[in-house]
UniProtKB/TrEMBL annotation:
Residues 119-275 form the Aminotransferase class V domain. SUPFAM superfamilies: PLP-dependent transferases. Keywords: Aminotransferase, Lyase, Transferase. The keyword Lyase applies. The keyword Transmembrane helix does not apply. This is Aminotransferase class V-fold PLP-dependent enzyme. One of its GO terms (molecular function) is transaminase activity.
């Protein structure tokens, strides 16, 4: 196992970076791998066959992080692509239950497919399940403000769940075997380039591979031309043709996170986020989050710029996120800068 301290040597941000919920920073090994393949591309020495190994490694590392078999993981480029597959699979007539203010890549495909979608407050999601509810589609962690869903209560309803883990896997331990479907954009907490997405599906959920392509073949390099249809028998049948360079970098980031493990990453992120809350007088939620959301006064934009702190504004609130690249001195400086200017 790799320690948090050793892994932090891979990062060298020039700001106090508290914005992983928008865009994760690449570790040095990912940047080096990406630069190497870009050099090969420019020199005319790149061989696409060489990319199969890092793509397979990325699949294995992600599977380990979420406790599934690699054969249960599909690789793509956008969350909404996989949500749309679920929306097509789910029969019309029932109800899809979602949280009010949910990220639209998780909800728009259901609206577009003609499903009846009911929005309720996140905290009441499990209580609002009705006989007509055929699917719960929810983010494990809300993008806008970092609220964590009560996943145990949702599982206890017995309703199939499509869980968006984009703001979760990488800091919040997730067991994907407990959900019918999970989907994660990798470019935040998984520290991969944009254009890398992971989808898990239980074998009994027989999704139609509407985006069938050569890379979803049982043997991709023997599936490039001609009929018949010959897709993989497992979740790889839902793969999308990979953006090679993004996946080469992704494999290195995922190897780094895998070598640390979900529990140490969880402990590190929550320790820093809760310390920031304590130092600034913000309340700690019942379900603690690595994302801190607070109302900020008018002085905050200037203070952030003056102290070289990178954060985000979402839903008219300041959003700060604490991950592997964040250090205790970062938290101390940010809290000193913002104390007295934030409230719940």
């Amino acid at each position: 196992m790799l320690s948090i301290e050793a892994a932090q040597a891979e990062f060298a941000p020039r700001t106090i970076y508290l914005n992983t919920a928008t865009l994760g920073l690449p570790p040095a090994r990912s940047l080096a791998a990406l630069q190497a393949v870009l050099t090969d591309w420019r020199n005319g020495t790149e061989n696409p066959l060489d990319h199969d190994e890092p793509i397979a490694r990325a699949r294995r590392a992600y599977a380990e992080l979420v406790n599934v078999r690699p054969s249960d993981v599909a690789l793509g480029s956008q969350v909404s692509t996989y949500v749309a597959l679920v929306a097509q699979w789910l029969p019309l007539g029932g109800e899809v239950l979602v949280a009010t203010g949910e990220f639209t890549s998780l909800t728009f495909p259901f609206f577009a497919a003609g499903h009846r979608v009911r929005e309720v407050p996140l905290e009441h999601l499990a209580d609002e399940v009705r006989p007509a509810t055929k699917l719960i589609a929810v983010s494990a962690v809300q993008s806008a403000d970092g609220r964590v869903a009560d996943l145990a209560a949702l599982r206890a309803t017995g309703v199939p769940i499509l869980l968006d883990t984009t703001q979760a896997v990488g800091w919040l331990p997730i067991d994907a075997t407990q959900y019918a479907f999970t989907v994660a954009g990798g470019y935040k907490w998984l520290l991969t380039p944009r254009g890398t997405t992971f989808f898990t599906v239980r074998p009994e959920c027989d999704l139609t591979p509407l985006n069938a392509n050569w890379y979803a073949g049982a043997d991709p390099w023997d599936s490039i031309y001609g009929s018949p249809l010959r897709l993989a028998s497992d979740a790889r049948r839902l793969d999308l043709s990979p953006a090679w360079h993004a996946w080469i970098a992704a494999a290195e980031s995922l190897d780094l996170l895998r070598s640390i493990g979900p529990e140490p990453l969880h402990t590190h992120a929550l320790t820093l986020a809760n310390r920031f809350r304590h130092l600034t007088g913000l309340a700690t939620p019942n379900l603690p989050s690595a994302i801190v959301s607070a109302t900020a006064d008018d002085a905050v934009p200037h203070l952030l710029a003056k102290s070289n702190i990178t954060a985000a504004t979402r839903a008219a609130r300041l959003r700060l996120s604490f991950h592997l690249s964040t250090t205790e001195p970062d938290v101390t400086k940010a809290a000193q800068t913002l104390r007295g200017h934030l409230h719940d």
